[in-house]
Every structure is written in structure tokens, then in C-alpha cells.
Specification:
- The structure holds 2 protein chains of 2 kinds.
- By secondary structure, chain A is of the alpha+beta class.
- Chain A has 5 helices and 5 strands.
- The relative contact order of chain A is 0.15.
- Chain B folds into 3 domains: 19-26 and 459-599, Aldehyde Oxidoreductase, domain 4, CATH 3.30.365.10; 33-138 and 211-260 and 266-298, Alpha-Beta Complex (Aldehyde Oxidoreductase, domain 3); 305-457 and 605-747, Aldehyde Oxidoreductase, domain 4.
- Chain B is built from 20 helices and 33 strands.
- The interface between A and B is large, with 59 and 65 residues.
- The structure holds FE2/S2 (inorganic) cluster (FES) (2 copies).
- One FE2/S2 (inorganic) cluster binds at residues 41-44, 46-51, 61, 63 of chain A.
Chain lengths: 162, 751
Amino acid sequence: MPRKVHVQTTINGETAEFLCEPRQSVLEVLRDVLYLTGAKEGCNNGNCGACSVILDGRLVNSCLVLGAELEGKSLETIEGLAEPDQLHPIQDAFLENAALQCGICTPGFIVAAKALLDQNPNPTEHEIRYWLAGNLCRCTGYDKIVRAVQDAAKTMSSEVSA
Amino acid sequence: MADKKEYKVVGTRPIRHDGVDKVTGRALYGADFHAVGLLHGRVLRSPHAHARIKSIDTSRAEAHPGVRAVVTAKDFPEVEDKIADLGEGAANLKDLQDNVLAGDKVLYKGHQVAAVAAIDPHTAEEALELIDVEYEVLPPVIKVLDAMQEDAPLLHEAMKTDEMGEKADKPSNIASHFQHKQGDLEKGFAEADVVVEHEYTTETVHQGYIEPHNATALYNADGHLTIWCSTQGAFAVREQVSEILQLPVSKIKVVPMEIGGGFGGKIQVYIKPIAAMLSMKTGKPVKVLMSRADVFEGTGPTPGSYVRVKMGATKDGHITAAEAYLAFEAGAYPGSPVGAAAFCVFSPYKVENGQVDGYDVVVNKPKTAAYRAPGATNAAFAAETVIDEICEKIGMDPLEFRILNSAKQGDIRIDGPPTPHVGFVETVEAAKDHPHYSAPLEGENRGRGVASGYWPNFGMASSVAINVTADGTISLVEGSTDIGGTRAAIAMQAAEVLGIPAESVTPSVVDTDSVGYTAVTGGSRTAFATGYAAYEAAQDVKRQMVERAAKLWEVAPEEVQFADGMFSTVNGKEQEIDFKGLAARLDETGGPIVGRGTANPDQPGPSIGVHVVDVEVDPDTGKIDILRYTATQDAGKAVHPSYVEGQIQGGAVQGIGWALNEEYIYNEKGEMTNASFLDYRIPTCLDLPMIDAVIVEVPNPGHPFGVRGVGETPIIAPPAAIANAVYRAIGVRLKELPMSPGRVLKTMGKI
Ligand code: FES
Ligand code: FES
């Protein structure tokens, strides 16, 4: 077995340390080493977005980044979105809009939507669809997901202006 | 009969009970399960589409550091040749075992051959490469019509066709041929002013759930086996594993984890018995996960098919005769959904003279599994486009034609029984009245199409238990895994009976030791049948609560009534107490209350959908764009309308994917060449507009709230509706699925 490497990084605002094999992806580290199983594996080759995380402010597929690359970086995962007593507005919007059926794609969509709204608080429907095209959902037909993101954008921008 | 009624809880849109867990990433799906001392299993798969296994040598793999066990088909106990009912289709258990680990032959690329348990997933993968399998490669047969030829390579040398109940004398890849017949076909066609007949082909497509199959098993020294997994039916897993491994069902506990989609594809077992065998050998918990390629190459797709449909009609639009020939690929073992296809092909319509022939044919592809209204989509693609051409020829509006020919309750179907209570006409009218149908559609290469889809729905067994809690809530225990929000739909039906809000119900999906038998989440049955069981359990609670109120007030139970959430005395003594108040007083009136309900309802009530679509075809590239989409469907009574809409939208989009892009692409060696989400392209949100889901409610007399199952119907109409729209756009009729750009250009004569 290859020798493990020691990695120090920031996950959801807190310092994290772990040992991983050089061949392990961030997705494997999250799920199998740190037991953060919110990011899901749907394809393991960058085609479904179920493993979406935000790495130094950029949306990435965690199955395509190596765990060792997290050294000194900052990672946001689905587990870090909600406050202890309050969901993130995107999470609320997904529930209000019934934007999930089986829910396996949901963490990936919510993280991807957050990355979108962080940089474009008022996206058009087309911008939302374009941005989320890297996330596959087989259950919903996307209608309610797109509406949830539209609603979340509205709530978040009114919170900012209020 | 359930009337169109207004309810307090049924028909509202509460937040689903498992919602917070699912938006925070906390919900535990099968692959998220962890246990101390966990080993990881991986499966070796056949690289060949068709080959004899000459030998398997596992010694190098066993000696690899970190490997704890290797299993092959030799580790199986003997099983009988017997058919088991798996909920959405039956399967022969010997075939099931052979499909789990190949015995003498491999029958498709991806067929499971051996498996390894090791200390981590990568070590297990390394060990797979050290298993030496010697194959004698045989010629494959991939397409249904090729496999039906007399000189086709045989998959099962001993299999003889069941020819309408009689065994044929020669071996063949045709497992069975059946026929339904009604009236006088010749006379029917003679009476027609217009006869249209065409041949259609559809390619193999996959359910495409985002979560790959998974299973963790632990076999204890006391002979008890526990399996944690994502499945559509924990009891169906228990049954299959019991038969495959010859263990009594009472020794197997299946714990259903959250499930990331199934659509019919997570009923058959593949890796669950393997995880169990690896645990038996090691004494440790073993987790086996599939990769995406494993899912495509090794699990149930839905069949490719050849369909021929001939229909005749009079000038004034009456169907006089209809005939269908359906040849379906079963995959490596018999059991395609051709039976359901034969049932559905002309079901929406009254056909007095009809004949349907069905052929179940094995080919060197994965054994097919159920996929949302299995078989019906293939059949409707043919029948619904033939109807469109008839309408064009006689100059009749296609929705008017459907209203005119709709089968009414009691009309005899081609397969014999009478048509049950259906809401077809109401659903067509909803499509006709929708602004979409009358909106102008301008621009070149654009067209509008319609089609309908029929699915009978299923009932089957469900069990529910309800515990009354002192704070006035109830906990509801059920066995239907929740793929699309059914916890909410089931809880709401109990809440309705007890006059409490949906939020006062805590529903749990539990393991096979903790609830009565419950059939699979499939056949669009869960909100209907498990909902029915919840209704019964709530009635049981209500009855017991009435007794408690009577005790409290020292009156006879007959003197207590329950309405609008209030228990009260009938005889003017003016005592009343609400559910919550009475729940707080159970201790003083006799102790806890547990309600139970079981159901096996036999009137699921078919659900029919009518879809309207606008497309634009790019004449240079052949690409079809969906401009606007409206789907109407009879839900009987929508318990939670948001999730009913979700089913309609999701099903429609799966149908759109099937229509436009999705297919297994094979090379001449019979190998699937596109086993990834990059090359097997399912629709993304960028490919689609909003999907307007219109719920029609024609109450089902077979359910206390009038519910009909809704999950499967919406996938049926899209390919035909889109093909009809494409014809209006560019004047050519596509008769092959998918209508990919290449096929469109070919049909247009451009390449
Ligand atoms: S699992 Fe990473 S993109 Fe699919
Ligand atoms: S909700 Fe099931 S895949 Fe999106």
C-alpha cells in the first residue's frame, strides 16, 4: 500500500488534518476518511456533479481533485451550509419548492447553486440552467430545482438589501 | 365510491418529513453506511459479451496482501429452477443466481464472475486483476430480430420456446410467444377507410438513477445475516437473498437505507448476495459498491425492441381494427416486460377487433429490469404515432380522435378483461383546454405533437403501524422505501383520518424485522397501497381512541363521535376533546394505543397521461430542441400535489431523454461502448424548458381518498409526442428511438 501523506486544510471554516493515500480523491477523503458523506458519488469521473464542493471559492467535482491537493486550501461542503438553528436560504427554497425526490443529487445541486449565487446574485433562468448543467438529476426533470434557485436568489438579495 | 371531496390534509403541500436531512447531507444512503472493521468488496466482470468459462483461478488474488476473501459461483448452494415474483416482474431463481455470479457461461459484457473482499477499495480493485479467468469466446447476438433467426448463436442451449403454452421442439433464443385476440381482425380492416402500418425499433436504455447500487452485509456466527442497502424493496431483497443463498427468511434482516433513485432498477439483486457471501467467508462486515460503468454494463436496462403496429379507422375517426407485433429483448435471461407492453399498447382505446403478439427474446445484453411503466413506452411510441398518421389522413384533431375512441369502463380489452374505471377523456380534455394546445406556434422547422400513455398501476401488500404519542402526535412505521416523497404522502393520509396536521406524524421506513410484509416501491403503488394501509391503521387508532373517550366520559362507545379532529358525545352531554387532549390521557384510560393496518388493494386504478410538446428541429445538424412541454395526468386525488407534479415532470424528462439521446451503443464484439454519463447522455437542465404538469383528478373508486398511482405513466407519451411534433416540423416520421441528430438527418435523406 502506498505511504500516506499528511494534509492540513480548512473544511467549512475549521482546521482539519488527515492522512490519505496519494491516489485518494477529495471525495474519497471526505467520505471514507472524514465521514463527511454529504457529497455523493454518482459517477466518479466528473459527469454528474453529485460530489460538488467549493474549493477556494470555486465549484469543483471532488471526485476529480486529489485529497493531497487540499493542503493549505479552504473547502466548503454541504455539511457547512446550515447554521445550527437555521437552514441556508437555498436549503429552505429546495424544501419549499419540493425540489428533490430521492435527494441523492440534492447536496450537489445546493452546493452548486451556492457557488452560482455567491458570484451572480440575480441569475436569469438561462444562467441558472447553464450553471447547473454539470449536475444531473434523474428524478425531478429540473423544473422545481430551477424554481428553487430562483426563489433562493430572491430571498437572499432581499436579505442583503434589508 | 370516493367522490371529489375537499380534505384538510390530503391535497395540501407540507414540507416533507425527511426534508431537512436531505438538504443538509445528513440523510444516510446505502453507500454512506459505515461499520467498525469494515472490509470492501469489488466485483470482477466479464470482458466478453458471450463466452464459456473454462477455468477460474483465484489463487494469486487470494495471496495478495490485504485480501480477505474471494468468491465465485462455486460458493453458491444448489437452487431449484423456480419462478419468484419480484413485484414488478417475475424471475427464475436459477437465472437470478447465475446472473449474480456466472456459472458455465458469461452472457454479456459486465456479467459478474468473481468478487474480492479486502481491507480497502483500492486493494480489492488490485486483486481483481489477479484473478485468472480462461474464456472460450463465442459469437454474440445483440439485436432482437437477429436473435430470433434460426441460425443465431444460442445463449441457453437447452431453452425451447414456450409457444402459446406449448414447448417447441428445437432450442431457440425466443423464450416465449403469446397472443391476445378479440373480434375479427380481417373484418375490422375491411371496414377501415384508412389503414396505417409501420415498423419501429427502440434501443436499450438505462434507468439512470444517480446513486449506483450498494450493499453492506454482516453475517453473524449465530447464522443471522443483516444487509444495509439501497433498494426499492427490503422484503424483495430478503426473499431473493434467501433463495440464492438458501437461508431462511427469518435469518435475514434487510435494513433499507435512503435510496438515490431506482425507477424499477433496484428490485433485482446483484451485489447484495455477494456482500453476504464475502461476509460469511470473513466474519466481517463487507461493503460492495458499483461504479457507474458497472451500473451501465451490469444492471437492468430496459429492452431494445422491434414493434410493428397496424391500425385501421373509418373516415369519421372510429378505430375498426388494431394489430401489434412486439418483439422485446429480455437481455441475458428470459423476462422482458413484453407482457406489460402487450397490455398497454392499445389500452386507452376501444378496439373491437384486435390482435397482439408478444415475443420474449434473449440477447447478449444485461438482464433487463423494470423501468418506469416497463414496456409501455416502446409500445406507445409505435401505436401513438400510427394514430397521429391516421388523424392526419382523415383530417381529424388528434385529441378529438382520442376522445372519440376512448375505452370506457366495461369495454372489453384485447387481452380479455374489461376496462376498469379510467379518467382518459377528462385528461385529454385538460390537454385540449390548456392554453398550450391553442397557442400559436410560429417559425420554421417547428411543430407541435401530442400522445397519450396508459399504465394499469399495481396494488400489492403493505403494512403500517401507528403509535400514539402523549403529546398528540403519532409515529408511523412503514416498509416502503421512500424514493420520491412517499413518507409525506403516506403520513398525510393517516393525518387526514385522525384530524391532525401532517407535521404531527413522524413517519419511519424500517427494516424487515420491524414492520409487516410490504411489497416493493414500484408499480406506482406506494402512495396508493401503503397509503391505504396507513388509512386502515389510522382508522384502527380512531376506533381505539373512541373507546378511550367513552371510558373517560363513562358512556358507550356508540355515543362518541369523531369529526373535524374532535371527539364528542352524540347525546347532548356536551363533552368534547381533541386528538391531542385525548392522547395525553391514554395512561389513565388503559395504556398505550397502537394501530395497525394492512392492505392488498385490488383496484389500483389506471393512470393516463396526455402530453403536448413543441419542438424545433435544426435541419443542418438534426438536433431536436424542446420549446414547450405540457403533461396532463389523472392522479385520482393528488395527496401531495408538489410531489405528484414532480413525478409527472421527472417522468416526462426521462421520456424526453429516451426520445432524443439515450441508447446503449454496441460494437461488433457486442461490447457497450458508452458506459459513462458523458457518453450515455441523460438530459441536463440546459436541454429543457420548464415542464408544465397539469394534475387531473378523477377519483379512483378503489381508494378511500380516490388516489391513483402516478409515478410510471408520465414516461410513456414523450417519445411518440415528440415524433409527432417532429413530423409537423419537418415533414418526416421517425420510427427509430432515439431520435438522435444522426437518425434525424438520415430520415431527412441528408446523410
Ligand atoms: S461523482 Fe464526481 S462528478 Fe459524479
Ligand atoms: S432527486 Fe433523485 S436524482 Fe435528483
